[in-house]
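Any chance you could type out some protein's one-letter sequence along with its C-alpha cells so I can compare the two?
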Amino acid sequence: MDFKRNIADVLKKVLKQEVVLEVPPNPELGDFAFPCFGLAKELKKNPIEIAKDLVKKIPKIKGIESIQATGPYMNFFVDRKALAEETLAIVLKKQDSYGKGNYAKEKVMVEFSQANTHKAFHVGHVRGTSLGESISRILEFCGNKVLRVNYQGDTGMHVAKWLWCYLKYHKKEGLKNDEAWIAKIYVEAVKKLAENPESQEEVNEINKKLETKEDKELSELWQKTRKLSLDSLEIIYKELNTHFDQYFFESHVEKRGKEIAKELVKKGIAEVDQGATIVNLEKHNLNVWVLLRKDGTVLYSTKDLALAEKKFEEHEIDRAIYVVGNEQRLHIYQLFKTLELMKFKQAKNCQYVPVCEVRLPEGKMSSRTGENILYSDFKKELVSHAAEEIKKREKLSAKELEKRALAIAIAAFKYSMLKQDTNKSIVFDKHEALRFEGDTGPYLLYSYARARSILEKAKYNVKKKFKVDELDEKEKSLILQLYAFPEIVLQAYNNLEPHIIANYANQLAQAFNEFYHALQVIGSEKEQFRLVLVDCFSQVLKNALYLLGIPIIERM
C-alpha cells in the first residue's frame, strides 16, 4: 500500500492541484505532513486556519489512522498494523528487487574513472570511480541499460614527460610492474622540468614522435609501459567492485579529432589564431577553447569531440553521462557548447556530473607534485587497521582475515566518498572513515553482520507466520525507514546523487541499532515478528549497499 500516494491523491482531489508531502522531524507529529503556507495567498487565510479547515474536509484515507492540524501543518498518522504488514510482506516477496523501478528504458553510457596511464591512481580517483559505479547501478536498478566506459589518457604531454624522464634518468634499471614506481617517474619528471624548463623542448619532441609514430623504439617503449599501467589499474577496479564494458583511449581518437578540428575551421565554427586552432566561445561566457597547438598536435578538447561522436554513432546510446572532475567543469561545458554549435543532434543528451576534489587533513593532493596518497599504499594501511579491529573480536585464518579486512577497507573508502554531495569537496580522514561506529562504511557492514548473526542464532525460519500487534515506536521507526527505500532510490535516480542512498543507509542502520538495543528480539513474546523485521532490515540495507557498490560480509 502506498500510504503517501493515497494521501496525495485525496489532497489533490480536494485542492484541485498537485501537493508535496513532507516527513516531520519528530514522529509525534505524524508520519507525513502537508504544509499549508502555499495556500495562504490563494485562499486569503492564515495557514493555521487553513490546516484546521482541511482536516475537517478530508475524507477517510485508506491506511491512515488519523489526521491532525498542528499549527500550519496537516499531520497524517499511518495505520501501524497496515504499515507493518504491507511493508514487511513486500520486502520478503521482492528481496533483492525491493526498491527497483521501471522509470525509463534508455541506453545510457556512463563515463567515469578516467585514470591516465603513466600516473598514480590516488585516493582522489576513488571518488570518481565509486561515484560512476554507483550511478550506473542506480540507473540499472531503475530500468535502464547501462554501458560503463572508461576514457583513459594513454597519450599526450604527461606520457611524453614520463618517457623523457625514464629514458634520461632510469633506462638502465629496466621497467617495473609497480604502480608506485610508475607514479614516482612522473612526479620526478615534473620536478626536473620545473628545475630545467629548457628540457621541455625535448619533451615536446617526444610528444610529436609519439603522435606521428615515426620512432619505432619509442613507440615500443610506450606500448610496454602503457600495458604495465593498465594491468595495475585492472587490479584496483576489481577491488573497488567495478568493471567497464568499453575502454576508450585518447590514442584511438587523435586522428579523428584532428579531422574534426579542420572541418570546424572550414565551417567557420573554429579559426586559426596565431598558429593555434581555436573555438571562440567568449560570447557564450566560455572563453576560448584551443583544439590544436601551434605545432599541430592535438589537445584534450579535440579528442573529446571525436569521443562524443564515437559514443553516440557507434554505440547508439540515448544519453551520455560524464562523471568528470570539477576542475574540468569549464572544459566540459566548452565541449557541450561546441557540439551544439556543430549541430550535433545528441548534444542535448550529454549530462555532466562533477567530481569535486578529495583533500587530506593536511591539504590538497596532486599527482604532479607527489603530494598525494597512492591507492595501493593507502589500501594496505586501511586493511592493516581493519585486521587489527577484527582480531579484537574473533580469531580467524589468515586468508579469511585478509578477505574481511579488505572488504571493510573498501567499504570505508567508498562510503566516505559517496556520502557527500558530489558538488562538495571532501576532506578524507582515514581515522574517521575506519571507525566501526558512526557515519561510516564499516558501521554499515557491522550493522548488516549483526542482523544476520541474530537470525542465525535464533535459527530463523522465514516461512513461519508472524502476528503484528501494537508497534513500539522503535519498531515503527524502523518499518518507516524500510517503507521509504523505493522513494529514496527514485530521488537518487532523478538527481543522479548516490549520497541520497548513502545517507539513507546510515539512517536505516541507526534505526535498526536503536530498535535492537531497546527491545528484546530472541525469546520475546514478539520473537517471530521481530526476527522478520531484522530480516527485512538486512535485506534493504543489502540493497542500499549494492547501489553504492559496497559488497556485504556476513560476519565482522
Summary: Residues 3-78 form a domain with the Gyrase A; domain 2 fold (CATH 3.30.1360.70). The longest helix spans residues 216-239. The chain has three domains: 3-78, 112-364, 375-548.
